[in-house]
Amino acid sequence: MDKQNKLFYITTPLYYVNSHPHLGHSYSTIVADIINRYKKLFNFQTYFLTGTDEHGQKIVEAAKKDGKSPEKFVDKISEEFQRMWPKLDIEYSQFIRTTNDSHKRIVQNILQKVYDKGEIYFAEYEGLYCVGCERFLDERELVDGNCPDHGTKPTLIKESNYFFKMSKYQDWLIDYINKHNEFIFPDQYRKEILSFLKEPLKDLCISRPKNRLDWGIELPFDKKYVTYVWFDALINYISALDYPDGNLFKKYWECAHHIIGKDILKAHAVYWPTMLKAIGLEPMRKLVVHGYWNNKSMKMSKSIGNVVNPLELINIFGVDGLRFLLISEMVLGKDADFRLDSFITSYNAHLANNFGNLVSRVTNFTIKNFDSRVPERGKLTDIELVLQKKIMEKVNCIKNALDSFRIHEIAKNFLEISALTNQYFDKTEPWKIAKNERQRARLGRILYVCCDIIRIMNILISPVMPNISLKLAGYLGYNSVKTEELDLNLLQSGQLMHKPDPLFPRIQ
Ligand code: MSP
Asked: What is the CA(485)–ligand 1 centre distance, in A?
């Protein structure tokens, strides 16, 4: 396939600006960044969108608490997100804010279009509203009368509002999900949505009267109302591409992948595809849903007050170390408990003792014995060929894991490659061979094979650990990570290597 046809569009949720960026937000954004970098590595043209969700009741309440106007308050917190991402080596293409004029204009155009089609009506409504979720909850969702996510009692609200005829798309949506197995990943969330859709779907209340809440996008057909925050925010995924006429939209919409946490599954798997259908667009290509980072078994969240600041973790593990640990310590789709001590144990075992040690012993030993040059490969024997075959199997596992968004398996296979190469090094005992001048060719062969595998590992891990991989490329004698060369035996003999610093100093 030529590069023209290999297109990829990836998004994160737009984070509410009522809370400072924490580890939960960072996980979604890092996962999106890693996937985006892999796609680029494999020659896709990509577009990566993130941003902030700035309207709604929750924001107004947070601004009030902070003694600021909503305008000032959203500017301040949105900037915190924008300053956080470069520190985590996030390379997005665009940062969108739902208070941008162009976004507001596109939301209003879409509302008018759906209204003109007769898919929005006015009615009186009574329902239980959770401000934390910014949505009306169904009775059946409540646990002991409380919101299951926030543990708070929803407020009974009775008022006249505008409604989107979401219910009319229920059968279409069920059919679509059934026909597109890969639409929601992992499968447990696909099943969850299908089971939710067994009950009759209600229409979606998409307005708020200004006399109750005026911080939002005004409805184009009734100035006394603003748009419900979810109907506004979800549209970012196309307004950022300048729907309907923008080139970005024409190029990227058909390959849209949304990364989200399970808390916002319903909005993305039910509201959004039905909204798209009403607008006359195809649904996104895929929804990738991850679980929660918990702290002492409770979801890490601002309202509970148990959040972890990623910057503190960078100080301990480095950005690359943190990025690696976040994808290796959480099975995508499942919850994981954040514990600093187990992160440290993992870092020491996997990065310092396994991979870091492999790099250090192989490069130092080669530099010492071959005058800092990559040795000749010579003719490989069975033990090397068997090792290389196993390595390439793992490389393929990594490629497959990527294709199917099983992102945690990248780290697992990567560490297995490292362990296999360490075992080969131990088994062949090059430090003994080095003592015998007549065995130089054999010594060269062993070290060549190890250095070449490290080169491949470095390419494979570059999307996860961009800084480490640049350093390591330098130790092997490259001035950049040569990404196109994932085949074996491509390391140049005679290339000048450089003495390594420890990549992952042990943490006590
Ligand atoms: N503004 C909405 C999303 C609109 S998208 C059009 C929203 N914002 S949020 O700030 O609450 O962010 C929710 C997202 O942050 C989750 O879906 C998840 O991606 C991430 N996380 C927040 N806390 C998290 C954990 N404790 N664990 C993992 N991810 C979590 O909802």
From this structure: 37
Among left, alpha and beta (phi > 0; psi -120 to 50; other), residue 99 is alpha
Task: State which of 90, 263, 276 you would mutate to test the pocket of ligand 1, scoring each by most atoms of that ligand within 8 A of its C-beta.
Answer: 263
- Over residues 388-415, the pLDDT tens digits come to 999 999 999 999 999 999 999 999 999 9
Q: Which residue, 454, 460, 504, 482, is CA-closest to 320?
A: 504
- Residues in contact with ligand 1 (CB, 6 Å cut-off): 13-16, 24-25, 27-28, 53, 233-234, 236, 260-261, 263-264, 292-293, 299-301
The CA–CA distances, whole Å, from 108 to 97, 122, 216 equal 16, 17, 11
Residues 360 and 500 sit within 8 Å (Cβ to Cβ): yes
Report which secondary-structure segment, H or E, holds 345: helix 340-346
Phi, psi values for residue 456, rounded to 5°? -65, -40
Q: Which atom of ligand 1 is nearest to the CA of 13?
A: 5
Average pLDDT over the chain, rounded to an integer? 96
Question: pTM score, two decimals?
Answer: 0.96
Q: How far apart are CA 234 and CA 251, in angstroms?
A: 19
C-alpha distances (whole Å) from 415 to each of 33, 352, 359, 394, 398 are 21, 11, 12, 10, 11
Give the C-alpha separation, 496 to 483, whole Å. 19
